[in-house]
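agent> step 3/5: call structure_predict on target 'TetR/AcrR family transcriptional regulator' (Goekera deserti).
agent> reason: downstream docking stage needs a structural representation; sequence fetched in step 2, passing through unchanged.
tool.input:
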Amino acid sequence: MPPDERREALVCAALPLVLEHGPAVTTRQIAEAAAVAEGTIFRVFEDKDALVRVVAERVLDPAPLLRELAAIDRTLDLRDRVTAVVQALQRRLSGIFPLVDALGLSAPRAADDRGPRPVDEQFLVAVVDVIGADLHRLRVHPMEFAATLRLLTFSATHPRINGGAPLSADQIVAVLLDGMLADRCTHDPETHHPEKRGPRPC
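tool.output (status=ok):
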């Protein structure tokens, strides 16, 4: 087997084991799952930790998500395009959350590091690109819309935040579009007072 294929086979075999056992996974378990001799691992990776790092990098790699967003059909209705974005992000998060739990990963930011990470910026720009010709319909800045989409999807998908009641992509998109499109009903301050609440003007 060529070295690249052997490396790929080991990474694929290790991923479910890392999710199940975390850092306690053994090279013997990985070798058995990959149907290779245990020594094969050390001809490809320096040690077990190096293999686990590659597994984590594979899951955290944003490139597949960005490619998926770029492939969304721009001729679809805006709601369908935004739904496709949310679904793609949900799939990515469903792979990341278990890995974070298994390995206890965290990425604390320095106190003076207040700007967006490059990866975050790439995602936001990609979302804005998907909205494309419908940007004028938003009543918030496009980057704010993209950031809100990410925040809602993250919190609505994370099992420790959503209280066991995750929101579907359609529900998330309904909050986003029905609350942020400029062509929706005009906000009426009086609707905040139950005694004055009536039909909202459109």
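agent> step 4/5: record observation. Residues 63-180 form a domain with the Tetracycline Repressor; domain 2 fold (CATH 1.10.357).
agent> proceeding.
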